Amino acid sequence: MEQYVVTGMSCAACSVRVEKAVSAVPGVSSVSVSLLTNSMGVEGTASAADIIQAVEDAGYGASQKGMTQDAAQQDGMTDALDALQDHATPLLKKRLVASVIFLLILMYFSMGHMMWGWPLPTVLEDNHVAMGLLQLLLTVIIMVINQRFFISGFRSLWHRAPNMDTLVALGASAAFLYSTYALFAMTDAQLHGGTEAAMPYMHEFYFESAAMILTLITVGKMLESHSKGKTTDALKGLMKLAPKTATIVRDGKEVQVPVGEVKRGDVFVVRPGENIPVDGRIIEGSSAINESALTGESIPVDKEVGDTVSAATLNQSGFLTCEATRVGQDTTLSQIIQMVSDAAATKAPIAKVADRVSGVFVPVVIVLAVITTVVWLLAGQTIGYALARGISVLVISCPCALGLATPVAIMVGNGVGARNGIMFKTAVSLEQTGKMQMVALDKTGTITNGEPNVTDIIPAKGITQEELLYYAYALEQRSEHPLAKAILLYGQEQHVEPIEVREFAALPGNGLRAVCGDDILVGGNAAFIAGQSQISDSIKKQAEALAEEGKTPLFFAKNGALLGIIAVADVIKEDSPQAVQELQNMGIHVVMLTGDNERTAKAIGKQVGVDEVIAGVLPDGKETVIRNLQKRGKVAMVGDGINDAPALTRADMGIAIGAGTDIAIDAADVVLMKSRLRDVPAAIRLSRATLRNIHQNLFWAFFYNVIGIPLAAGVWIPLFHWELNPMFGAAAMSLSSFCVVSNALRLNFFRIHDAGRDKKIKNHRSETMSEDVRTDLNQKEGNRMSKTMKIEGMMCGHCEAAVKKALEALEQVDEAVVSHEAGTAVVSLNADIEDAILKKTVEDKDYKVLGIE
Q1: 517 Cβ contact list (under 8 Å, min separation 6)
Q2: Angle in degrees, CA 713, 171, 370, rounded to 5
Q3: Under 8 Å between Cβ of 40 and 14
Q4: Three-class secondary structure of residue 722 per DSSP
Q5: Which neighbouring-strand residues pair with 33?
Q6: How far apart are CA 349 and CA 337, in angstroms?
Q7: In contact, 245 and 214? CB cutoff 8 Å
Q8: What element of type H or E holds 608?
């Protein structure tokens, strides 16, 4: 998407006009204009020159955002930050101050003397013409100060695209011109009939109305501009965190340079208390890094040699030497800013309703103002009275409130999400996430940590936990199996002293053997240990119970005597059960998808509390399941963004979790930078709050105009004698947009992790998988050739994963369903393949193939 800065827009009608003009350019496939950020996103093959020309032909200005990569690296965040700065409010404030000064003088002469008898200079006391000329002069000064309304308004009218400025310009001009006519008429009357003849014309002056309209609209514009500036505070806060300089190492010396001069491969140093200037990799030192600026996580993360660090994060403790890996627009911070900026440049579907209304709003209001004036003239009222009603209709009507209702809420919602590590790629994703009826969760890495951990230590009778762990740690030191790493990590945490073993061997039948001193140590699964040592019934029952919970029990023995069991499993994250419960409390049906065997999957699913478990489904199968789940409602898929790409793409909303610094995940609509599953209900909660805010804004914007326009036209005068002065109409208009923007800013105080006010939505929940899903999966399986391999040596889910990955790397293999418990791999083929190739593929991973059927 190419982004442009658009100038000259003042209301929703302007953005609609620009959108229509650019859409007509050949080669433009889609265009979205944001009144909030004065930006435009364009997709297609049209040249920038053609697009800019189309905008200019429509009566506005445009320039292309962005720079070359080199320029971006030179200027860093400066241009982006400058673009977000509130430049309009200071200018509007100066206009307002000048307008108020001259307005107060005008009001003193026009109303102070007549209503409250305030003293006047002698020359003006009986000279009504001089009084009128003074009011005209003061009004002209105020009109010159606020000339932007007239330039923009009449230019838009000339291009047949009237906007809010057109309404203001017409209203103020009508009041001024009629007052000028009255002044000339009064002059003629005074010349021919004296002071008494001129006196009635003083009540026909509307100079103060014209001046008050312009001043009050400027008040509203300033408040609106200030509030709009607040909507980008989250982004500006991020940009300000980025250091302006970096300390790089050149020829062995530390040199401080602007951050834009840092290039990939440069070595830079960061002292405690300093912000990291660019993304890099630690080559020397260790430290605790506060990444809250990017992820919203307040707890510092320990980093050491080889780990990555990101720009704008804070080095809290150690001295670090790093190599720059991503600079300029490639840094994580820049990508976050770009993502939020792109989201602001897109439009939510709900905004299209307001846009359609805004497109015809101003012409309709002008017609209504003319009709109002004519009707009151036909009713026998004076020209001044009828004109006042028409002017009131013009100045009370507000297309801006309609145009701002959606984009301000989207911008603030995106800012709140960014502060908490939740990135919505488009306005559509922010609006639609809260409408999901089902959430499908990938098990590994989403519900669980994705790495095996020791969960239980059960020593045999007469053996202590310390003794069991001591010998298991010694035996597993030489093993490269993932489960061995879990035991070694646990042993290190428990400060187990390493001891050297000899004659280490991995034995057929899932076992290990080594000599420790004079003792022979063995370890493996139940079947292997049963041939090496006697296992009591109580230990067997405990092992079965562990297996039922989805854990892998590993048995250890010394000199033929059982030492005990150490259970290893991919444990669930601490917040997973709470996250699932929060989703269910929102009325969302939670499904767990996994390629694991059914027993392990159901054990995990039971612990977490999901509504439905679908096991034995690989990436291709997950996409099929998502497609069929969509027949029951809208589905969000939560996965790691890489292995789950097909399912993320197929789902109504793809949510990538645990992205960390890799936020540019194409398959995902929403990116969660942390691995915390509670961010999923938080994202849904934020989406719902944003949509609720948009509905409130649209209601008040429509309600205001529906009530205000009839009141201004004088519809209620015959019944209730409610009459609206044009000045009060202008005041109401000036406050309407301000109220809409202020309401959107309330989202900044929304607590996205507070589940106390969650409400259920209507859903099509069911406890089991639909028959459609089963049928489609079975048909898919039936259309394939398949072979069943008998494999020896697999001990756990990680072994299954290793075999599955190896087999699926073959072009002829669509998928492989592997079970370490059954010792089989069912391979689905799209073409014939020799058994020897399958056998070699598995045995290269150090497992033994017993046969292929």
Answers
A1: none
A2: 50
A3: no
A4: coil
A5: 40
A6: 23
A7: no
A8: helix 598-608
Instruction: Determine contact, residues 431/669, Cβ cutoff 8 Å.
Output: no
Q: Which two tokens stand for residue 587?
A: 């009325």
pLDDT for residue 70: 38
Indicate whether 269 pLDDT > 90: yes
DSSP state of 572: B
Q: Where residue 79 falls among pLDDT bands split at 50, 70, 90?
A: low
For residue 327, the SS3 value is coil
8 Å CB contact between 41 and 3: yes
* Nearest residue to 424 (alpha-carbon basis) of 91, 590, 654, 650: 654
Distance of CA 558 to the CA centre of its chain: 56
Residue 521 or residue 355, greater confidence: 521
Biggest alpha carbon distance in the chain? 133
Sheet of 519-524, strand order: 453-459, 561-569, 552-558, 519-524, 511-516, 502-507
Residue pair 741/231 in contact by the 8 Å Cβ criterion: yes
| Eight-class DSSP state of 261 | G
| DSSP states along 30-58 | EEEEETTTTEEEEEES--HHHHHHHHHHT
685 has which bridge partners?
A: none
Residues annotated as catalytic (active site), given as ranges: 442
Q: What is the pLDDT of residue 808?
A: 81
Around Cβ 370, how many Cβ atoms within 10 Å? 14
Confidence (pTM): 0.70
**Cβ density class 320-343: b for 16+ within 10 Å, e for less:** bebebbbbbbbbbbbbbbbbbbbb
Give the Cα separation of 335 and 702 in Å (integer): 37
Of the ranges 28-37, 141-150, 701-710, the best mean pLDDT one: 141-150
Neighbour order of strands in the sheet with 287-290 = 301-303, 287-290, 314-315
CA-closest candidate to residue 749, choices 233, 226, 229: 233
| Separation CA 845–CA 847 (nearest Å) | 6
Cα–Cα distance between 198 and 690 in angstroms, integer? 59
Q: What is the pLDDT of residues 426-440, one digit of tens each?
A: 888 888 999 999 999
Mean predicted lDDT score pLDDT of the chain: 81
Q: If you search the block for the tokens 């990590």, which residue do you land on?
A: 489
The Cα-based distances of 494 to 323, 555, 832 in angstroms read 34, 20, 51
Residue 73 reports pLDDT greater than 50: no
